[in-house]
Amino acid sequence: MSTRQDGAPSEAVRSRDDLVAWIAAGEKPESAWRIGTEHEKFVFHTDTLGPVPYDGPRGIRALMQAMIDRYEWEPIKEGDTMIALHCPQCEAQGRPTGTISLEPGGQFELSGAPVVSLHQTAAETEEHLREVLTIGEELGIGFLGVGFSPKWTLAETPIMPKRRYAVMTKYMPQVGSRGLDMMYRTATIQTNLDFGSEADMVKKLRVSLALQPIATAMFAASPFTEGRPNGFKSLRSEVWRDTDPNRTGMLPFAFEDGMGYERYVDYALDVPMYFVYRGGNYIDVAGASFRDFMAGKLAAMPGEFPTIDDWSDHLTTLFPEVRLKRFLEMRGADGGRWKRICALSAFWTGLLYDSSSLDAAWQLVKDWTAQERQDLRNAVPKTALQTPFRSITVQQIASEALRISRAGLARRRFLSLRNQDETIYLEPLETLVTAGRTAADELLERYHGAWKGNVDFIFAEHAF
Length: 464
Hints:
alpha+beta; about 40% helix
């Protein structure tokens, strides 16, 4: 038996059935369904507009230390290196209870707590931003909400001292040309949602996979690379197409007969591993399969067998457009500012957490072929809402999906203190879809107009 990172023993994996059961244990009654929201932000020095390194008096570590000193966050460390923050006492104080973590290039992420309503998502996001902006102003640090680093080269981008990232950095160039860009120069918003049964999981997975390119189009906000337009509305999404085909994509098998927990486990078993965590170290096993691990045949760890924590770790290294763990993760959106953070969770909550809306969403997508779904995925990074589909465009599909989501949110009847329901969080999306203009379109217009070709203005006009 191995031990977890917190020192407690981790249960051994005895068979494939254990892996299936681990995922199935995520099933919850509808009354226990929650909304989890994650959002990443690029961090920059406001005087130079350069990226913020880990060390130094105005570095990422200094930012995290100030969060500890000012707001009672607590450090999470690898050895002596602070890599994340958590706040066990925050719930009692009415503050965000999630985790603040670092992505490879210093992207600053809040992995929010599971909450009941979107009003709580909004409050959590607002409080988190208030804290980081207060500290940031004192340190001369700003935060930018877009999908791809608009100015810095890969060589200029700092590297965070998190051990698992070292393994990934070594492996990524072997399996695609854009893996390092994905790690170091992209940022996203993500929504995590629950399921009630295996059948409910399958239906939600299919709907969210089919509509993920629609979300990508609506949230497109990465039109610049190294100071110039890059020809895409969502370069973040395009980068994922050449990252690692073994662990990314639209999961066409999810739409086949017999789809369920076992089928996803079989897929995950064959996705190459990155690492195994033992004794405080990440052991590089990149390219090996979890099946070999279960047979005790890892070349780097002969005779060693996996634990459930190893399985949980492995699932976090799969990057399909929708990821299944003990909940479903919506992974198609570019990073964005406050209203768009809440809007993403609103869009998916309205579609997936109301049975009538889930049925309507399935009716919208059920006759799309695997090739049509893939063609949408391939096209939306460049043309976003204007992408053609059959005799219409993505803009029209987005409009219908928003209508279905709005109806679902209205039926949920979660009211704020101002007696507003959750549909208020869809309004930014409804406005942009009606106009057919994404954040990327607006940024490009500013670049060619008022900015006169100088992307530096994005750090003033589009920062949090």
